[in-house]
Amino acid sequence: MFERANTKAGGAGRTVKLPGKTAQHSDARPVDIARELRAKSELGLREAQLARAEAKLDG
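Above: the chain sequence. Below: its structure as C-alpha cells.
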C-alpha cells in the first residue's frame, strides 16, 4: 500500500568540508569521510609512520 524511497530526492546526500578543500556535495558514507579525516590528522600520520617502522622491522 505504501511506497518507500530508497534514495533521497534531489541532489547529493550531504555537503562535506574537508580541511584544505572547499565544501562540496558528496554521497560518501560518514564512515568513509571520518576515515579520510583521521588519516590526514596528526594522529593518523603518526600511526602510518609507526606502521611503516613495524613493517621495516618485520622484513
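Residues 14-58 form one domain.
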